[in-house]
Amino acid sequence: MSGKAVEKAVYLGTFAHSKSLKELEIAHDAAIFVDESGKIVAVERGVADEAAAKSFFPKLNWTESQEKPIQIIKSKEEQFFFPGFIDTHIHASQYPNAGIFGKSTLLDWLNTYTFPLESSLSSLPTAHRVYARVIARTLSHGTTTAAYYATISVPATNLLADLCLAAGQRALIGRCCMDSLAPDYYRDAGPEESIAHTRATIAHIASIDPTHAIVKPIITPRFAPSCSSQLLTGLGKLQKETGLPVQTHISENKREIDLVAELFPQSKSYAEVYDSHGLLGPKTVLAHAVHITDEERALIKERGAGISHCPVSNAALSSGMAAVRTWLDDGINVGLGTDVSGGYSPSVLEAVRQALMCSRNLAMGEGGEEAERRKLSVEEALYLGTLGGAKVVGMEGRVGAFEVGMEWDAQLVGMEEVGLEGGFEGADGGAVDIFGWESWENKLAKWVFNGDDRNTLAVWVRGRLVHERRS
Amino acid sequence: MSGKAVEKAVYLGTFAHSKSLKELEIAHDAAIFVDESGKIVAVERGVADEAAAKSFFPKLNWTESQEKPIQIIKSKEEQFFFPGFIDTHIHASQYPNAGIFGKSTLLDWLNTYTFPLESSLSSLPTAHRVYARVIARTLSHGTTTAAYYATISVPATNLLADLCLAAGQRALIGRCCMDSLAPDYYRDAGPEESIAHTRATIAHIASIDPTHAIVKPIITPRFAPSCSSQLLTGLGKLQKETGLPVQTHISENKREIDLVAELFPQSKSYAEVYDSHGLLGPKTVLAHAVHITDEERALIKERGAGISHCPVSNAALSSGMAAVRTWLDDGINVGLGTDVSGGYSPSVLEAVRQALMCSRNLAMGEGGEEAERRKLSVEEALYLGTLGGAKVVGMEGRVGAFEVGMEWDAQLVGMEEVGLEGGFEGADGGAVDIFGWESWENKLAKWVFNGDDRNTLAVWVRGRLVHERRS
């Protein structure tokens, strides 16, 4: 797939995408025109069929010939185009442990399950096997952009970038920086090595994708407890020098917060640790933030940093429930992260679903308006998984919705219609059952709650077809 | 499928099942011998292959001939046999609304979404379409036994029984009794009608399955708020007369509890409402019980009633988090319910998963031992979905595990092994990725957290093949 050149194409039929947090637009008989660079050049309404779509070609200066026809991809009954999902926090290297966490919480989980696995990916054949599968899996779940954590290994991190580029998955690639409080078998030797190794992956990615059209490096201090102050200072300088984005963890777990307070007694808060080292800015992605204080929230808002909400992980490791509504009310940018393998699922759709559940868990015991306020709607959760995520990873205006000038990062979603007799007929149409009397809003809700990768029939990144459903 | 006679068969390979709440046994090179009545007649260990399995035939007085060979079904690599799931609480009639609940809570959810849908199933073609699909779906998810709520309609409830029997799904079939506080368009005219209509479905089921080998009636007062005291009294008498099981709801939602206190001022508690009407006994299945008091817990334990824990529903409708560990410590029988469509998923595996998450949500904010205590293990959650459920629906010793004398209600589970190159190859093997280095305990955890109906390759009830995976 990856080798295929992108051609002009028209996407025709039903589209759903977020206009804002509150507004999810569903348009029928629409047409989206995508050029050879993968950009949306026109969005038209009231386009009933292929002939109508073609009538726009002259206006766009598009010509087709017998040898070079322009492909028109039409959604069928119970199908719609939806923006590709944006996973703002996923540890590619931890994928083989998805579902394996027992009763652990963050700090013992790291030592018991995570560091041994990450360390094993210094073997490149292992890294290749794991990373190739993560990319194939996440693409199959409709993830068109992923902010990946790799490991400390430079060659394996570079390999992840190579594989994303080859598969055509948009990705931020982060080599984990960690020179403290990690096992001897898995840590950077010191701040200098950590920074030098990070520069090596930055250089590699610049060499394979100079414009960062698909893959881009992201500066990745693992989290404050595993970074010396010197390392954080160096990474802050590196950010200033390169202008690259930054990703890290914050306030996932209470014991972690206590540890940070011990390790950085000069900082007033966890957020301030990053801020005082030049690592809290508009290009920073903070994962979790479950237990941040009001002061930290204000600081995050002031700096323009984004938060990656990881509801599956936060429940699995019993970290806590994040007050997403409060962040949104503050105007903080919020996206969703699968946080594999703290989170058990590589599917952003599962994160959408569990963000809804998390907000309902937070509403329990609250009456009336406050309970209502805390609950996210299906539309809001889908926004977090697409447009909200785009803002968090610094790709606002480029991906996350279907607007002229944005790139065609999309998935074709299809659901099964139940026959009149009710039994199964024919091939596996996935786990969502449409009876035909549902409103489109309710069809989307059905997809959100029972959908899976079977409903993601095709996936495009920058106009290129990067996945088709296996059957 | 349904018409096929059951033949003797041997199941060979890897098996997993619960011996008790704490102990999940995984056996390799085992063989289970099932006779024409669908009963397990022998379980043998150290059976390496088909020849070894056949060597047991003389001991069992089994003979095979060229015309009538005995089928040996062997699990392959990364496959295992597992008991069929038992869904102790599912509203078959609400299935078309799975995933559709907005921000509602119990009482407004009933009026907005539920009663209109249930009422529409008085149309038999609609009921046929919905019920046939529920049965196909739940079988595909490995549900071999379901405690169904139908609607108030006698013909539609009878149809559900007919369809379960034809499909071979073991089921308890409950006509909803409700003569109070329900909309005019959807309620029993009074207690006499409610009881007469219930008797009609009991008679019908006796006529189609006289020994209740597959389908059995269950007396179903919807929940206390929708039943007059006269109706509850009549149903209590009917239970005494028939010895049939009872299912109802209890303490799902705080406003519901207040309503019950208003409606039944003479009762000290919600549980006492049922108890004082002769409806709380060893054959009673109580759904939810989220907010039961210590006194109610003691009463439930004393009466030997079982609880259907419905974690997906309780989160979706923000009802609350059930203290399952406390119930288990008390020795109360606990099973899992999908509670479609308060719960969005018809999959008991999803209920297993969310029971694990619910217990972890309850552990948040608790330190040390208390947090550990609240968390369920994968083994415990799987017990709830099988053997625990069997006890709740009065089928202990008959289904839920693989022991001699029990019936062969089982599923063959299979997972995909990742190739050395990591990419997708061949057909869709489901969403679980096995790398090959996992322990079997971890393979089961991977199934629990990322598995779906694609991993359920085949399903048997009472020795009969009732589902094979669609591809």
Kindly name the structural category of chain A.
alpha/beta
Largest interface pair: A-B, 69 and 69 residues
Q: Low-confidence segments of chain A, ≥5 residues, pLDDT <50?
A: none
**What is the domain tally of chain A?**
2
Tally of alpha and pi helices of chain A: 15
Q: Strand order of the main beta sheet of chain A, please?
A: 3-2-1-4
Reported by name, the CATH topology of the largest domain in chain A is TIM Barrel
Q: What kind of oligomer do you see? A: homodimer
Topology:
2 copies of one chain form a homodimer.
Chain A lengths: L8 E10 L5 E11 L5 E5 L5 H5 L16 E4 L4 E5 L1 E7 L14 H15 L3 H17 L2 E7 L4 H14 L2 E5 L1 E2 L13 H18 L6 E3 L2 E2 L7 H14 L3 E5 L3 H10 L6 H7 L7 E5 L5 H10 L2 E4 L1 H6 L7 H7 L2 E4 L11 H16 L4 H7 L3 H15 L17 E5 L1 E2 L15 E2 L5 H11 L5 E6 L2 E5 L3
Parallel strand pairs in A: 1-4, 6-7, 7-8, 8-10, 9-11, 12-13, 13-14, 14-15, 17-18
Antiparallel strand pairs in A: 1-2, 2-3, 5-16, 16-19, 19-20
Helix pairs in contact in A: 3-4, 4-5, 5-6, 12-13, 12-14
GO biological process, one term (chains A, B): guanine catabolic process
Catalytic activity (chains A, B): guanine + H2O + H(+) = xanthine + NH4(+)
GO molecular function (chains A, B): guanine deaminase activity; zinc ion binding
